[in-house]
Amino acid sequence: MKIRSFLLSAFAITTSLHAQDDLIKKISANKSDTVGFRFTTVVSAETTPVQDQGSSGTCWSYSTGSFLESEMIKHGGPSIHLSKIYAARKVYEEKAVNYLRMHGSLNYGDGGLGHDAVNMYGKYGAMPEEAYTGLNFGNDENEFAEMQAVLKGMLDALVKAPNDGKLTPVWRNAFNGVLDAYLGEVPEEFTYNGKTYTPKSFADNVVKLKADDYVEFISGTDAPYYTRTTLMVPDNWALQPAYNVPVEDLTAIIDNALRAGYTVAWGGDVSEPTFSWKNGVAFTTMADAEKLTKAERQELFKSPQPEPVITAEMRQNAFDNYGTTDDHGMQLTGIAQDQNGTEWYVVKNSWGDSNDYKGYLYMSKPFVQYKTTAFLVNKKGVPNGVMKKLGM
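Predicted structure:
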């Protein structure tokens, strides 16, 4: 079940569309009996229905888009799906510029981080999903492999600057032409509830959220705590810094936000043998899961198991040796208790509703402490003590 070697070669779902598909298949292959897990929800935020990102590495856009949809609901707005592909397309456009400015020494692909969706919302606005689905060639779900291959090939050709070492002023038109062909042209205006909007006016008058209300957190020992530093993963193409906090603050912040009615846009590693999408649970184990037999692993999924105390050193070591990779983005929507009274997080995924919990899963707090790479939350959901330490 362990797929670390695959993730290192493909760099997780966000750098290869085939990696996205293979990751889901391998995670889904764990069909151990989880009848022994019994959860009772104690905190739950309102969310929109589960979606399926299809064959695309756009989990960051779906998870953070869903996060923004929950923010809309909490602030009295409508419960609607925003266009995740509009946000993704704007990222592709901006990432292409950075790729050429870095002469190709930058990751290019479907991948991104949660802050990318928020940044695109703040800069370009938003639109309802029906105004821009990205389904433009008879497909009923996202199929991005061919599109991204064409775009990457174009960019790599441009890096060589074949016109006497210079770029022409029309390369962006060519790049956008490919996006138009696969995703459709972006409408300058669209109708929602009988009124005409632009993406910016829709953001201002319907969504009504402020992009600067959201704070991103990471946790590592390689930078001072409560300062901003850059998460060094390939999909952080914008090189945007985030606030570095101790490992115990990860769950303290998430708990405070969820109990205050806010959700969390989460990113982290889902390649562990103890992550089962089919069964809808993710946890850590006192045993070395990679050395367990298949039968021993199946036993782990029959009921809640003792979990280790996660330390900062454990987190950093796992990150530095590729034990923790930036695989996937999801939305934390609530807190539940298992039959032993232990709290878990309720998590909304974007792989459809085919698993045991109809598109949701439960992640233990030690798993979140160990395998989180970054997460976003409304600053009103951050504990006051943490905000003071951040100087906010």
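Summary: Residues 1-34 have pLDDT under 50 and may be disordered.
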